[in-house]
Write a structure and sequence with these properties.
heterodimer, A: mainly alpha, MetI-like fold, 18 helices, flat, B: alpha+beta, four-stranded antiparallel β-sheet, two-stranded antiparallel sheet, 12 helices, globular
């Protein structure tokens, strides 16, 4: 009897050549239909239009070195000149340090090195000592950076110390009252609490007002990348705590606090940053009593911090809303107070959830620091713009090169941060969603 | 029962009572705000007196005495500050209006291109988004203004297209339409076209419900809306003529002019915002689950009706809220005009008028008020839309 039914598997055939390898990929992704083929050719034509001129301008016909503008003038060089990187090279010091005195620039470099040196172990998840590192970055580093950049030795006066002593005495009195009469805290805890506020504060003021032999540098001399980083970092660090408080206040049960937080957030989010900067440069001085005068950079920093705090508050609120009710109820059932519940249960989960939002706010703030040039501070873009007026370097390609360099710097920072946020998002994803 | 509850309540010390704590913290907040407000007002009043700066809104009636390079309403140097405010506001709204339209169109194209199955196209779109999203807007404005539009040749060597459009470093010169007396017929025909398209749509729907037959509404509506005015244009004896710009002396005369400040601001705002809109569109389309289009195909819908009736309506629900906030951002970002002296609200009012009068408080409050009102209107629209579109569950 003959079997017409196969008893053995037929040999596996390789997939058709047109669906594998480079040919298959091309057919699949570029030439799968007539429209697709047309689109591919349009795309290739666009690339042909854009990429070769950029490569030619930025590399092939670019001028890399030169003493002054003559190196970049095509009539002097005798060939078509693309980017004038010699200009960027000549102004590099200004772009990084602004008009900071040359002999003091090591201080800025030290601040950069310390900052990035502490930041890198902070952002690489596998490196240890995150807690100590965070303490250094958030508590010690700002003071060190402040003293290094300004030169410290701020004029405090004895009046401040008298006021400070009175304040500490009042706080100790309150602690004593709360411990002995009201009996809500232990006396030891009360004194510890006051000391925890007073001692670091006094130490910071003492160090900042001590004469460390550093020459004072006016903030009007700061510029370039220094100002950009100072504004962006201060803005983000200051806006975190304010933003968290505002977000909590907006979800509070207390009507007046909620109303205040809503009004505050909506006001700052509703106006453009430029008007905020105008406000801090022309309106804020009017609000202060006669004789009190803030530094221009400090005023801008206050405006930027409040502005970004409002955005941060909305980001954090998104995280708070995403925490299921059960978490709050569980924490309350354990008898945790409001602040303990927030600190130990809700905020860790909420903040983790909104890391991408926080990074996006930071990227936005980083790009927005360029606006300070409108109120007369010279940030990265401002200092480059300022140097276009240098008659030595007034060549046709100076401005293009300057803008291109600024764009590359900003792109590297912002793109890096956005990639990092995607990386963290994937890392912290516990798979609980959906 | 009631007695023991009261006893419990009495045992709790006042400062451990949540209601008392709430009242206390709110009272402290009110006190702090009132105190700060008082300090600010008294300081400001004394500072203003010392610097001899007037207060109040009377300055709006004073003569401005400066020119503005682009005005939508009649304005001259002897107009009032109030008029300058209006001119600035209209210029802001003008650039925001066109910016929103162009950014939406470009953003949708780029967003859809990013989802394209074509590798080259989707890569190109991704590069576009990353480059323009990660560089500051101000840098882009400067680039278009100083490096591109200021670098084009002067009026005598203008770049021209078809002999109708001329681009030089004073701006873009275009032919302007001149309307003669009976040009209104075209407008009437246009409105009639719109109404007949609406009527046609209603009739087509009724017929489809009755008979199941479909009618090509979209094409015929286009025909009605644009066909009527074209017929009217010829029937009325071509009442619209073009006023062409012509070189006379050192510059062009006649036609319409787009000043380079406006062009570069519009270009930068469009390109920058489009990169954000593209991401929103992409996220919105990806948010519609694949099962939706599979189900639509299973019901026998073809590709186009699937997109039109199933995917896009659901994607719009996700797209519209962030899209409106991008529109708002674009409007607020148009205040960067001050950096290249495009005469918008901030540049004219919070810039020139502020410098001339010194009345910082009133002027900044008015400027911020305008942006606040715009943003409140936008968020009211967003709340209304969210309430209308939110999925009703259980």
């Amino acid at each position: 009897m003959t079997h017409y039914v196969r008893t053995k598997d037929a040999p596996l055939l390789p997939p058709p050549a047109s669906t594998t390898g480079i040919v298959g990929w091309l057919r699949e992704n570029l030439f799968s239909s007539v429209t697709n083929t047309i689109l591919t050719f349009i795309g290739l034509y666009l690339i042909y239009l854009i990429v070769p001129p950029i490569i030619n301008w930025g590399f092939l016909s670019a001028v890399w070195t030169g003493e002054d503008g003559d190196a970049c003038r095509s009539e002097k060089v005798g060939r078509a000149v693309g980017a004038c990187w010699a200009f960027v090279e000549a102004k590099f010091g200004q772009i990084i340090y602004g008009r900071y005195p040359v002999e003091e620039r090591w201080r800025v470099t030290l601040v950069y090195v310390l900052g990035f040196g502490a930041l890198i172990p902070m952002v690489v998840p596998s490196l240890p000592y995150k807690g100590l590192n965070a303490l250094f970055l958030l508590a010690i580093y700002p003071v060190v950076a402040f003293i290094l950049l300004t030169g410290g030795n701020i004029d405090i006066g004895t009046g401040f110390w008298i006021g400070f002593a009175v304040l500490v005495a009042i706080l100790l009195g309150v602690a004593f009252f709360a411990a002995s009469v009201a009996k809500i805290i232990e006396l030891r805890d009360g004194i510890k609490g006051v000391a925890m506020f007073a001692v670091p504060f006094a130490a910071v003021v003492l160090v900042s007002s001590a004469d460390l032999g550093l020459a004072p540098v006016e903030t009007s001399l700061w510029g370039g990348l220094l100002v950009t980083l100072v504004v962006a970092v201060t803005g983000i660090v200051a806006s975190m705590p304010i933003g968290i408080l505002l977000a909590l206040g907006r979800r509070s049960q207390m009507p007046i606090i909620r109303l205040f937080c809503i009004a505050f957030i909506e006001f700052w989010r509703g106006v453009p940053l430029i008007t905020v900067l105008f406000m801090s440069s022309v309106m804020l001085p009017l609000f202060l009593p006669e004789g009190v005068n803030f530094d221009k950079l400090l005023r801008v920093l206050i405006g930027v911090a409040l502005f970004s705090a409002a955005y941060m508050a909305e980001v954090v609120r998104g995280g708070l809303q995403a925490i299921p009710r059960g978490q709050y109820e569980g924490a309350m059932a354990l008898g945790l107070s409001y602040w303990k519940m927030m600190r130990m249960i809700v905020l860790p989960q909420a903040l983790k959830m909104v890391i991408p939002g926080i990074v996006n706010t930071f990227i936005g703030l980083f790009k927005d620091t360029t606006l300070v040039l409108i109120v007369g501070l010279f940030d990265l873009l401002g200092i480059i713009q300022l140097n276009f007026t240098d008659p030595n370097w007034s060549t046709p390609s100076t401005s293009h090169s300057g803008y291109a360099f600024a764009a590359i710097l900003f792109f590297v920072f912002c793109f890096g941060m956005s990639r990092y946020s995607i990386f963290m998002e994937n890392r912290l994803d516990t798979g609980h969603r959906n | 029962m009631a007695v023991s509850e009261q006893a419990d309540a009495a045992k709790v010390a006042l400062w451990n009572n949540p209601r008392f704590r709430a009242l206390l913290s709110q009272a402290v907040l009110i006190f702090a705000i009132v105190w700060m407000g008082y300090e600010i007002v008294t300081n400001t009043v004394s500072n203003l007196e010392r610097q001899n700066i007037a207060s109040g809104f009377g300055f709006l009636e004073n003569t401005a005495g400066f020119g503005i390079i682009q005005t939508l309403v009649p304005y001259a140097e002897d107009s009032t500050y109030g008029r300058a405010f209006l001119v600035g506001l209209l210029n802001t709204l003008l650039v925001a209006f066109f910016g929103i339209i162009f950014a939406t169109i470009l953003g949708f194209i780029i967003g859809i291109a990013r989802l394209s199955k074509n590798w080259v196209i989707s890569r190109l779109a991704a590069v576009y988004v990353e480059v323009f999203r990660n560089t500051p807007l101000l840098l882009q404005i400067f680039f278009w203004y100083f490096a591109v539009l200021r670098a084009v040749p002067g009026p005598r060597e203008s770049l021209s297209a078809f002999g109708l459009f001329f681009l030089n470093n004073r701006g873009l010169y275009m032919p302007a339409p001149v309307f003669s007396d009976n040009a209104y017929i075209i407008l009437v025909a246009f409105i009639a076209g719109i109404f007949s398209a609406i009527a046609l749509r209603w009739w087509a729907k009724q017929r489809q419900i009755r008979t199941g037959q479909q009618f090509p509404v979209f094409i015929s509506s286009l025909g009605l809306i644009f066909g009527f005015p074209i017929i009217a244009f010829f029937a009325a004896g071509m009442p619209i003529t073009l006023d062409q710009p012509e070189l006379s002396g050192f510059n062009f005369k006649g036609g319409m002019t787009m000043i380079p400040e406006f062009a570069s601001l519009l270009l930068a705002l469009t390109i920058y915002t489009a990169s954000f809109i593209a991401e929103i569109v992409r996220a919105g389309i990806l948010a519609v689950s694949h099962g939706q289009s599979e189900a639509a195909h299973a019901l026998g819908l073809r590709v186009n009706p699937t997109l039109r009736l199933v995917v896009i309506p659901q994607a719009m629900r996700v797209i519209i809220p962030p899209l409106t906030s991008q529109f708002l951002n674009l409007t607020k970002n148009s205040s960067l005009a001050v950096a290249i002296a495009y005469p918008d609200l901030v540049s004219v009012f919070a810039g020139t008028v502020l410098n001339q009068t010194g009345q910082a408080v009133e002027i900044l409050l008015m400027t911020m008020g305008v942006y606040l009102i715009i943003s409140i209107i936008t968020s009211m629209f967003m709340n209304w839309y969210n309430a209308r579109m939110s999925l009703v569950e259980r």
